[in-house]
Design a protein that fits this description.
By secondary structure, the chain is mainly α. The chain folds into 2 domains: 107 residues, RNA polymerase sigma factor, region 2, helix turn helix motif (Rna Polymerase Sigma Factor, Chain: A, Orthogonal Bundle); 76 residues, Arc Repressor Mutant, subunit A. The chain contains 8 helices and no strands. Helix 2 packs across helix 4.
Length: 186
């Protein structure tokens, strides 16, 4: 019985994946939605076993990645393993982001006995707000939210090299805001 269920699931998955992968087809969106409804409970259980605190976010990010890349799925019968691989990668990204946030919070810890934020935090916030919206968003997504270069590249629809260059430039501008060159001081 279990084998028959699995085979039916595999057939249905393959059928829906073929339709969903043809993004020009009017049925593609509906097929993708049905595919996600079919696999969502399994992906949630898998994500909860890895990162229980952020499982919903992980699956949501994974579904977005799948929606963008369903056309690249060469073997529709392998949708399940493809989906679980994406969920696992997003879970690992989430764990890395949590570690980065913890490290950043440890570095910027404010003394609890002092109710006002330290001058360093105020300076950093002012420097961030002095940047353009694009620079501030890029720095926040990478350093605070923990998005990877690949995620940023897909999100902004630009090559990874461009993201690296923009991050470098944004960091330089932030550094200039925090410590302006001596010829500009005064």
């Amino acid at each position: 019985m279990k084998q028959a269920k699995r085979t039916a699931l595999e057939r249905q998955t393959a059928y829906l994946a073929v339709i969903a992968s043809d993004k020009t087809s009017p049925e593609a969106r509906d097929a993708f939605a049905r595919l996600i409804r079919l696999w969502h409970p399994r992906m949630m259980r898998f994500a909860q076993s890895r990162v229980p605190d952020i499982a919903e976010d992980v699956v949501q990010d994974a579904v977005l990645t799948m929606a963008r890349n369903i056309g690249r799925l060469r073997t529709p019968e392998r949708f399940g393993s493809w989906a679980f691989t994406i969920v696992a990668r997003r879970a690992a990204d989430g764990q890395r982001a949590a570690i980065r946030r913890r490290n950043l919070q440890d570095q910027i810890k404010v003394d609890d006995s002092n109710s006002a934020p330290s001058e360093t935090i105020i300076d950093l916030k002012q420097a961030l707000y002095a940047l353009s919206e694009a620079d501030r968003r890029l720095l926040t997504l990478f350093h605070v939210q923990g998005l990877s270069l690949v995620d940023l590249s897909a999100m902004l629809d630009v090559p990874t090299g461009t993201i690296k260059s923009r991050l470098h430039t944004a960091r330089a501008r932030l550094r200039d805001q925090l410590d302006p060159p001596t010829h500009l001081k005064e």
